[in-house]
Amino acid sequence: MRVEITVNGRPHEREVEPRLLLVHFLRDLLSLTGTHVGCDTTSCGACTVLLDGVAVKSCTVLAAQADGCEVTTVEGLGGPDGLSPVQEGFRQCHGLQCGYCTPGMVMAATALLAERPDPSEQEIRDGLKGNMCRCTGYQMIVESVQWAAANGGAR
Amino acid sequence: MIGSAVPRKEDAALLTGRGTFVDDIQRPGLLHMVYVQSTEAHALITGIDTSAATALPGVVGVWTAEDFAELPARPSVPGLERHYLAGEKVHYVGEPVAVVVAADRYTAADAARAVEVTYEPLPVMATLEAALAPDAVPIFAPLPGNLALEQPVTPDDVAAELDAAPRRLRARLVNQRVAGAPMEPYGVLADWVGNGVTVWATVQAPHRVRAEIAQVFGLARHLIRVVAPDVGGAFGVKSSFMPELFLAPELSRRLGRPVKFVETRREHMTHTYHGRDQVQEVEVGFDENGAILALDVTITVNIGGVPDPVGIGLPTLTSYMLGGCYRIPKIAARYRSVLTNTTPTASYRGAGRPEASFLIERVVDLVALELGKDPAEVRKVNLIGPEQMPYQTPFEGIVYDEADYPAALELLLGELDYDALRAEQERRRADPGARLLGVGLSTFVEMAGFGPTPLFEQFGYLGGWESANLRLQPDGSVIVLVGTAPHGQGHQTAMAQIVADELGVPFEAVSVFYGDTAVVQEGIGTMGSRGMPVAGNAVRQAAVEVADQARRIAAHLLEADPDDLVRVGDGFQVKGVPDAAVPLAAVVERSFKPHLLPEGTRLGLESTAYYEPKNLSYPSGAHGCVVEIERDTGRVHVVRYVCVDDCGTVINPMNARGQVHGGVAQGIAQALFEKVSFDAEGRPLAASLEEYMLPGMLDLPRYETHHIETRSSFNPLGVKGIGEAGATAAPQAVVNAVVDALAHLGVRDVEMPCTPERVWKAMHHAS
């Protein structure tokens, strides 16, 4: 089947198998390998992207379901002038170690700050509970999101 | 720069989606490999029908064990050599039985499901008890039973010492099986071209993988390039032998195309090595003050169905660390490594040492409970004093470096406000509406900085040293190649900090590379907290040597004696003569001008250093955990977690804090949440992240971190390592807190993970 999906502002039209997952559409067809796969059960959140502005786990969305939608991946954040506030917050506060969960975590945090520009620690933990990190123990991710909230938010 | 919390050089790529993990790499003509995994825990394979699979469009082929018969088996304890695929029989659920290659991963997965394997069931021994029962069937036929190894670690017993002790008690402690579960599963991409192969793989020791591939294929090492690109966490589980490291190259060779294998999470949870899984039988003798006089320990470790050679021997490390930070005059230890029909076990963060720390810290609390004394007081009676360092333990060659264990405990008790917590605990116990409060202490020491070579070569490594090459570029910037292969530890940043200090160059002017056998001179790898203690010192040594070369050229430039030069700002100056100075950049440029150098001077400023540690290093500290327990559900809430760590010199406090947090998180997770279990038929009950309780943000607390910096005299940087300390310290801090909260009810132990069900049962069925 044919799908047309706008990714990071650019439209892409492709012929796909109906069972193709959005994450593989992004990684294998568009070579946007920043979105990672960490599990098969929608548990870990490494594959989180924004679908029409909403954080979704792209390993549980079919490319067909994203037909006609706008997708933002980690490659779509920031810009020529540098990192987005969330990305910069993770850098300043050591919110990443191996970096594998990081793109998904950054996307989920971006969606959270778009909805709640000044979240409490509990709201951050609630908002990111669907994203797993095995390296940091989470506290420095919380601090990264707090840094981002104070320095530009979800831009 | 040492001691400065600079943000990491690694982060820009990882934060923008431009990291390079194995699955991100594409090659022209890439094929995808998938395993057919055993669905049985113990069975004879009576047939494999591949016809339906091979008939699928896009399938290149299906191969079984006999197709790889010419590849030599992986060495192990005699009789336990591992083949690449299961042959006549399967030993655990998840063992690879066949391998499918197809043009894309969806087709490969379809084909793997279409392969029909028929089995003739054999008796399943999924537990230690079943595997050691008198009627148990040997899982490996050459052995008479399932006891793969019975190893006395100490020559004597302590029967006389225990008899002489005024008090003694016994305990049976269980350190359950857990999964390392890095967020990136295992992956390999092999591209065999001509008479050599390039392999990208999620590994912790690329040079060792190159050596093993060379040995299996009978190739010279220069024909093999192994690249560990960005690795998405490892925690020890990416340091073991995996069949795909050899099958992917072999299939690439046969097919003339690149072949990629990337695990699914389900495959990872059943096929990649688990960790821990020890049962510990302990007897301890002590006096009325709580002074421990003798310790007798028998460890039984479950090594699974097709054991890893490292996994078989890990209780050696547990044994060496049994004394913890205490003066225990006599320790007797032995272990048994037992085959079962489960996934094999091997290294996981701490690899044998957290099991020891758990044992001794639980024992100290049990002694305190038995004597009605405060656990902090019993610790103070037994702690090795700073004046006794370096401390020779009862184990030959195990000598602790400088530390102040009592000071760490005092700092912890102060930060916890320990006395106030005890008062609050009493108040809560008297108030039926309040949650119960418990305080757990863990004064720990672990073993890090692996080598030296005589120890580390026993684990299959070429040596216990680490290597670094440092060379100045003509513009004064620096390239460093280091033999470790990190996976989140921040070596680009920490190594650059060391170089900046030793060489007097800006941090920004240093780039660090690793993880590629074609780029990096020989190396050993990243495991056993050896990054700073071994590799860091290799980098420092290379920098010292290059600085010395630069000094000689500067002296020639300034027409002075090298000994008369002092370091200033960005270069050298003749002592006391500010006008006679030269910047480092000018020295480097001069180093490339042979006609302006003294006869016989080697061109360039460059050194390759190999640093061999004389000894292991011993990170230590004191951690404390405060829990609240819901009386009606048994649910445990970690309300405070306080760490005091002594990892010697801290290179980057932000990185060090991150390492402590991550290790503590995994330790708390082992104490409260995680367990890999199997049913009686050996079927895995935790084969996905839906079933395996990997903690999320709501499950883990804030961590309060503090450092005591006692330089180690064992290496020039004075560092000890920090990667495994948290995972070593935390499980027993939490369990001690849980038991402490329930002690007034007669509870003496709660087995990990301390789930609400277990805690509730302990509360209601305590004797």
Automatic annotation (TrEMBL), chain A:
InterPro entries the UniProt entry points to: 2Fe-2S-bd, 2Fe-2S-bd_dom_sf, 2Fe-2S_ferredoxin-like_sf, 2Fe-2S_ferredoxin-type, Beta-grasp_dom_sf, Diverse_Oxidoreductases
Specify the enzyme's EC class, one word: oxidoreductase
Keyword terms, alphabetized: 2Fe-2S, Iron, Iron-sulfur, Metal-binding, Oxidoreductase
Q: Cross-referenced Gene3D superfamilies, in alphabetical order? A: 3.10.20.30, [2Fe-2S]-binding domain (1.10.150.120)
Which EC number(s) does the record attach to this protein?
Answer: 1.2.7.4
| Molecular function GO terms recorded | anaerobic carbon-monoxide dehydrogenase activity
Q: What top-level branch of life does the organism fall under?
A: Bacteria
Q: Which residues form the 2Fe-2S ferredoxin-type domain?
A: 1-77
In terms of PANTHER family, this protein maps to: OXIDOREDUCTASE WITH IRON-SULFUR SUBUNIT (PTHR44379)
Protein name from the UniProt record? Carbon monoxide dehydrogenase small chain
From TrEMBL, chain B:
Q: Which Gene Ontology MF annotations are present?
A: anaerobic carbon-monoxide dehydrogenase activity
Q: Has the keyword Isomerase been applied to this entry?
A: no
> What InterPro entries is this protein classified in?
Ald_Oxase/Xan_DH_a/b, Ald_Oxase/Xan_DH_a/b_sf, Ald_Oxase/xanthine_DH-like, AldOxase/xan_DH_MoCoBD1, AldOxase/xan_DH_MoCoBD2, AldOxase/xan_DH_Mopterin-bd_sf
Q: Which Gene3D superfamilies match?
A: Aldehyde oxidase/xanthine dehydrogenase, a/b hammerhead, Aldehyde oxidase/xanthine dehydrogenase, molybdopterin binding domain
E.C. number? 1.2.7.4
The record's listing under SMART domains reads:
Ald_Xan_dh_C
A Pfam family assignment: Ald_Xan_dh_C
* Domain annotation Aldehyde oxidase/xanthine dehydrogenase a/b hammerhead: ranges: 16-123
Identify this protein by name. Carbon monoxide dehydrogenase large chain
Lineage of this protein's species? Bacteria, Bacillati, Actinomycetota, Actinomycetes, Streptosporangiales
